Amino acid sequence: MTSKPEFSCLTFCAVVLAAVAVAAPAALAQGRPANAPRYDLKTEVTLNGSVEAVEPVTPAGSGRGWRGLGGTHITLRTESAEAVQVHLGPTAYLAEQQLAVQMGDRVRVVGSRITLDGDSVVIAREVTKGGRTWTLRDGSGLPLWRGGRGRGRQ
Known about the structure:
Elements: H1 3-30, E1 44-57, E2 71-78, E3 83-89, H2 91-96, E4 106-116, E5 119-129, E6 132-135
Parallel strand pairs: 3-5
Antiparallel strand pairs: 1-2, 1-4, 2-3, 4-5, 5-6
């Protein structure tokens, strides 16, 4: 009779582990839509230029922001005169890291250039302004505001 309680405890643990294994990926995916843009290391670029516009973006009703990229966006006029749309990250996270950009600021952006709805967009991984560098994503492109290592300012 001593084997029944042990078997029940073992069965209970196995059921809990199975439930966690099934539920964890679904819980992680909830914060990001399946079609949300992804950082692509193969398309990483470094851009230098002047900020032409700063736009905090969160359209009414969606909560996801511009094309699935909610947060703060800038238009960067590069040294080659190209106007590039750059997604920095969630506005609250940028404020927490004390990263503020304004029109006219000279910045360096390292990020992934992707095509979104036919337009070229850069998802920033690192921003340098005035000799300070803020890391927004880790080396593999995962956002630090999701609890990644390092969490920001250097």
